[in-house]
Please model this.
Amino acid sequence: MSLTIVAQNSRSTFAESLSVSAGMHYGFFVANQPKSQYLRDSHTVLGEISILSKTRGTQSWQQQNNYPEIGLSILYGNTGSREYIGNMAAIIPFIDFPLLNSSRIKTFLRLGFGPGWVEKPYNSETNYKNFMISTHLNACIHMSLKAEFPLVKKLYFQTGFSFTHLSNGSIQLPNLGLNIPALTAGLRYAFGDPVKIVPVEQPVFKKQAHVYFFAFGAAKQTYPLKSPVYLVNIFNLEIAKDYSPTGRFGLGVNYAYDRSLSSEVANAPTYTFDKSKSHSQVGIIAFYEHKIGRLSIPLQFGVYVYNKYPISSFYQNIGVRYRFANRWIAALQLKAHMGKADYFQWGIGYKF
Model:
């Protein structure tokens, strides 16, 4: 006696799950300081080409995240400052998380992170007015919220909103960073018919508490320009509780020893900075962490309870973490103060 169990459409292949899309982003970069307002001489116009594949439920995390799409996109276009910043480009690996799916409309949230390039970075002699970006090579975070409508068979119209952040994480100053909100529209073409999936049974979900310790390092430059690049040490103790198979909430304590911290001396006869105060920073963080198998995306919001230098009281961390062993986790995070990048932190964590 034999028994056959169908877990998914056996006729679907990887090639049939592929699709391509092309679109445009029309917006502007946010001038978060008065000295950056005069750099903006046009609207930001970015073209995007993407190739993506629909997951077919072969792994538990795909079913738990409602069968997301995984892809790679290329962004290129005018930053919004033709004279001082020029064009930008980025290569973005991404995941599309479905939100609403019906025969008439599909909505999804896209999260992506990858390397970015800027045509005209700051130069003390030839481009000294560009205080936004000082390096050709940067990191790019791209997010979008889109709705998709069918036009004809295998062809779909997409529209929505996007947000793009470009920064070098203060490895080299100046680095106000580019923050670009935009309207987006485009088309997607699917090579095959929609993949039909019959979900397999999932294990029973059990809510668990987790305790993590992370150690990070970062490289950061400070004012005045052409100062040394300083080492920053960061330590996090985090406690989290699962609320679903894909997400957990938590609280933590964040300690940073930032050797770059300084404050400008008021009324000094020269451009002078004081570094004599304590370089320790202590903060309390609350966070949400979205799980995608071994990969996770933390979104952290913190407030300083100890900080001796003038800076925003609130900060944010966003990044990616990958569990490469049973208890060990590799992590990359960007710390920012209200949209202004502070530094990229690389580290490793341990789950107790």
About this structure: The CA atoms of residues 232 and 340 lie 17 Å apart.
